[in-house]
Amino acid sequence: MKNLNWRARNIRLQVFLSHAGIASRRAAEGLIADGRVCVNGVTVTSQGTKVGEGDIVLLDGKPVQPEKRLLYLALNKPSGYICSSADPQGRPLALSLLPGEIGERLYSVGRLDLLSCGLIFFTNDGNFAGFLGHPGCGVEKEYIIEAAGPIPGEAIDAFRNGITIDGEYYRAKSADRTGRSAMRIVLVEGKNREIRRVFSHFHLHPAVLRRVRIGPVLLGDLGEGDSRPLTKNELSQIFGGKHGNRD
């Protein structure tokens, strides 16, 4: 965790929203474009709008304040939990597994689907979320997969060499067999449900799909459903020394 040095200065509205733990900068731009943000009683849709100390910012009619501290947590998400702030179907939220004493509003970075498990981050830092969510960030994500049946060599070759499915190209940075029905995959771009889509193409079902690493952060022996703060060294390695509160 780190303190946010919020100073009396004008910053872009999407940056203000990200500092408030609402969403990443990119997602905040969408909120503005949709007309959901008001500044001093006026609905704002321009991305160039700036706010400073004394301005009143509302999202969907509710006041927004920048967080006083930034949090970065690693969670070992169990299967059966979703990475959303709410679910109309009433399914369990991964967010509910975080320590109850945390007062800040947190959101997940790099989703895992309902049936997948393993390492996921939660934060209220829009800079952090935006960086990891950018396709060009280059941060590796490592997974171990246990299939319901034997994995054919052609499926592993498809991950290694690339394959186009329904017009979408998928390719892993590395893919290695670890057993007759098990393999380890490293992704960089991490497209939506990439592993499951390729498995489905070969009529395979991943009985276990667990993320064990994001960049330098290892799942390690973190218990299922448990969480821990990211260390300063881990954050520094993720950003390569470039992290900071940028406007």
Structure, described:
By secondary structure, this protein is of the alpha+beta class. Helices cover 20% and strands 30% of the residues. Strand 6 and strand 7 form a beta hairpin. It is elongated. The N terminus and C terminus are likely disordered.
Question: How many beta strands in the DSSP annotation?
Answer: 19
- Specify Rg, calculated over alpha carbons: 20 Å
The CATH class assignment of the largest domain is: Alpha Beta
Fraction of residues in helix: 10-25%
Distance between the termini: 20 Å
Q: Characterize the overall form.
A: elongated
Portion of residues in beta strands equals 25-35%
Mean pLDDT over the full residue set = 87
What structural category arises from helix and sheet content?
alpha+beta
Q: Going by CATH, what is the homologous superfamily of the largest domain?
A: Pseudouridine synthase I, catalytic domain, N-terminal subdomain
Largest sheet: 9 strands, mixed
Give the topology string: H per helix, E per strand.
Answer: EEHHEEEEEEEEEHEHEEEEHEEEH
Count, helices: 6
Features:
single chain; 247 residues; alpha+beta; Structural Genomics Hypothetical 15.5 Kd Protein In mrcA-pckA Intergenic Region, Chain A; Alpha-Beta Plaits; 3 domains; four-stranded antiparallel beta sheet; 6 helices; 19 strands; 20% helix; disordered N terminus
